[in-house]
Design goal:
Layout: H1 18-26, H2 28-43, H3 50-74, H4 82-107
Helix pairs in contact: 1-3, 1-4, 2-3, 2-4, 3-4
Length: about 110
């Protein structure tokens, strides 16, 4: 006997969150700033100036902001959660990267 194919269609009223999409796009800003700051520090032999530190602080603040927005949007109902969750994951990875950079700088490695 032939089996009937199950078509798992689910019609829903869920939509993409505008703020969640914006948070995902803005979570790439700390990533770009991370690579810029690392390249700038590398070109100066590890003795970067205050400009690089300010870039790092701004990137950490941007990552915290996008993490907050992503988590808030992921908790809403009737929202497709993939985009805000992706933004939150990218923000957490950037926070971990910046934390590692600062800790390595403080201990002098």
């Amino acid at each position: 006997m032939r089996r009937k194919r199950r078509k798992n269609y689910k019609f829903t009223e869920k939509k993409h969150s505008g703020a969640g999409t914006a948070a995902l796009v803005l979570s790439f800003v700390p990533l770009v700033l991370f690579f810029y700051a690392v390249a700038l520090s590398y070109s100066k032999g590890g003795h970067a100036d205050e400009k690089t530190g300010c870039i790092g602080i701004a990137a950490v603040l941007a990552a915290l902001m996008t993490l907050r927005i992503s988590v808030r949007e992921a908790r809403k109902e009737n929202v497709i959660k993939k985009v805000p969750v992706a933004g939150a994951i990218l923000s957490v990875l950037m926070l971990a990267g910046w934390t590692a950079i600062y800790v390595l700088g403080w201990i002098g490695v």
